[in-house]
Amino acid sequence: MRRGSGALLLVVAGLGVAIGGLWAFMKAAGAEVDICSGPECASGWYFAGPILVGAVVVGLIGIALLRAR
Hints:
This protein has one domain (about 1-65). The protein is built from two helices and two strands, in the order αββα. The chain has helices at about 1-30, 45-65; strands at about 35, 40. The chain has a two-stranded antiparallel ribbon. Helix 1 (about 1-30) runs antiparallel to helix 2. It starts with a helix and ends with a helix.
């Protein structure tokens, strides 16, 4: 059960890294990936950063579950 959960968490972390990494790359490359609602816009960094941090945390939990005996 733990190994299956750990593997699933690693897959979720991989998807998070792919989405957050692509978003961060596009923002760094100059693409307009900001979130706008009306005249106010929030920087894309405010969304890419938490996605990447969450993916790292989920990945570490997945690795811990896979390594548990």
